[in-house]
Write a structure and sequence with these properties.
Number of helices: 7
Shape: elongated
Strand content: 25-35%
CATH architecture of one domain: Alpha Horseshoe
CATH topology of one domain: Serine Threonine Protein Phosphatase 5, Tetratricopeptide repeat
Helix content: 10-25%
Length: about 400
């Protein structure tokens, strides 16, 4: 054999590896662009060239999960677990494959169990206390408990319906909604003295109260001008018999609006024809900035995680109301709950390690905490796949 032919045989493996690496690289580029069909093609070509290349199987599993191709995703994940346990520990893959198996990727703790529809939970800024509404004593009132469910006690006691509590940044005051004076208005409750003061005064319906980042104002939605808009009122005006410092946060009309406050920004959710558009804006009001994520159907406020990287939302896209987590940078979403019951998400603990929601999965609506730092292990998911 001629010497130059020896070099060709030596170079062939290197050339094949280069081609395989090129397919894997292109596959990840298409993943970033959201072109999932081409991503599948590139990773499949890499696997054809090297059937045991774990990187190619990892990429293909990601592409199938992003396109919600459950069967192929589970098959690829099973292969990946055998080829590379480290790559199979990918957080997104574990979240998605658990969901495809009908499992919830994170465990939940039930915090309340009294009959009477415990709902609308809110967690304090230090993560120590949770406020919620309940009809356990015959009428819908505001209750307070420790973050582990202990020390549950009633805060309000009147014939009206009190609900939707929200903590002030310093944790000393709750804003909530009540119809005790004839229609839905916003009230404040001092947790130290139990004193209650009425903040809003209008025949329109006021709801979804949330404190401004400095605690000096309460933002809320109202239909007082025939369209749902976001308003704010000064806390100092509470109890004076009139609204003080009232102003509209946005001048434009919005439809079926919800919002949440994170630090000094508003996450505003507008629903049109069962589709949701999201944008952020300064809490003081100002120019809106569209949030780059695909539209989705949702019935409750969308909440931004403390690190700003994920959105928690409730959707009935798979038949009933469930919780989903959407990754802001690329729109990839995972289903967090898997039950025939209704789940409604309300927020995160300050460190982002727990998720607060209510559900009727126990027969009656109760408050739950999902532990986002306890994701199902690769071994647990693989064992569930093998049982299928």
């Amino acid at each position: 054999m001629r010497p130059w032919r020896n070099w060709i045989w030596l170079l062939l493996p290197a050339l094949a590896a280069c081609g395989r690496d090129r397919h894997i690289g292109k596959g990840h580029e298409f993943l970033e662009l959201g072109d999932l069909e081409r991503a599948v093609q590139q990773f499949s070509q890499a696997i054809n060239a090297a059937p045991r290349d774990a990187r190619a199987h990892h990429g293909l599993a990601l592409a199938y999960c992003r396109s919600d191709s459950a069967g192929p995703a589970l098959r690829q994940y099973r292969i990946l677990c055998k080829l590379s346990p480290d790559l199979a520990d990918d957080r997104f893959l574990r979240q998605k494959t658990a969901g495809y198996l009908g499992l919830e990727p994170y465990p939940s703790s039930r915090l309340t169990s009294a009959r009477g529809n415990d709902a609308f939970p809110a967690i304090s800024a230090d993560g120590a206390m949770i406020a919620f509404s309940s009809k356990r004593d015959g009428n819908t009132e505001i209750y307070l408990m420790e973050a582990d469910g202990g020390g549950q006690r009633r805060l309000t006691d009147n014939r009206g319906v009190d609900y939707a509590p929200s903590f002030s940044p310093d944790g000393r005051t709750l804003a909530f909604v009540s119809d005790r004076d004839g229609n839905d208005e916003i009230y404040l409750l001092d947790l130290g003295t139990s004193a209650q003061r009425r903040l809003t005064h209008h025949p329109g319906e006021d709801g979804l109260p949330a404190f401004s980042p400095d605690g000096g104002r309460v933002l809320f939605i109202s239909d007082r001008e025939d369209k749902y808009r976001i308003y704010s009122a000064d806390v100092l005006g509470a109890g004076s018999g009139r609204e003080r410092g009232l102003h509209r946060v946005f001048d434009d009309d919005l439809n079926k609006i919800h919002f949440s406050v994170r630090r000094d920004r508003l996450l505003v959710q507008e629903e049109r024809e069962n589709q949701v558009a999201l944008f952020t804006a300064p809490a003081e009001g100002g120019p809106k900035q569209a949030l780059a994520c695909p539209p989705f159907r949702a019935g409750l406020p969308t909440v931004l995680s403390p690190d700003g990287e994920h959105l928690l939302f409730t959707s009935s896209r798979e038949g009933n109301d469930e919780l989903y987590l959407l990754r802001v940078r690329d729109g990839a979403s995972v289903r967090l709950t898997a039950s025939p019951s209704q789940e409604f998400g309300f927020g995160f603990s300050p460190d982002g390690k727990r998720l607060l929601y209510d559900s009727n999965r126990g027969g009656d609506r109760d408050i739950y905490l999902m532990h986002l730092d306890r994701l199902m292990t690769r071994e647990e998911i693989l064992a569930a796949i093998e049982r299928e």
